[in-house]
Give the backbone structure.
Amino acid sequence: MTTALSVFNARVDIKLEGVSEGEYPSDSRDEQIEAALERYSKDRPKESAVKDLSGDGGKYYEINATIFTGWVEGFSRIILLEYPAPTIASDDPPTPLEDEDWIDDYRDATKRYLYLPNHTPGSSETMRITYTLPYVFANEGSETTDTPEQDFDAICHLAAGLCCQALAVKYGQSIEPTIGVDVINYAQKSDFYARRAKELIALYEEHLGIEEGVAAAGVIAELDVETTYLFHGRKTR
């Protein structure tokens, strides 16, 4: 499913019903949608990138974005290595190597390598390598991404939750108001958005089957908006 950023934004706006443009501008919402997509990529990365790599008689093969299209250092990883790569037209069976047969993060001073401790593919042999990629918004000016349709609403829940986290912090940082009633108002709003953020992010985690209380990779820490923070600001924490 290819979905435009504007479509994500419209759905997030629905989940943020009652939040005005002045209270939280659309540019900031876009940033939180992108942050949600980044976390989603870590929780459920794209696993459709495949590279057929010819052997050279050695055990080390460089890994970079030129060789492995779209590879993102610090994110991407190899999840399957087939050697020799099956010939589909000949109905060859898949030949996945065991985990102990390959390491995808061996490094020297400047480069990252795939290391094969038990194999040395020849120049006439091919390895079929499947690796992960993040979901991103591509096409400048008309940003789209190809996230699965069944996860669209969950990603919007997460993005709306991140917006609510930001709003909770915004009101929690409003210190030294001139009128006492403002203090109560800011505290109430901060508490409301913190609770709403927790609810929305829980819906995302439930959809993805993330166990409650177990942080997934890249998870943004849950807000802890305390009374002292509301009235005295960050220095007291």
Summary: The CA atoms of residues 73 and 228 lie 40 Å apart. Residues 46-133 form one domain. The chain has two domains: 3-43+141-236, 46-133.
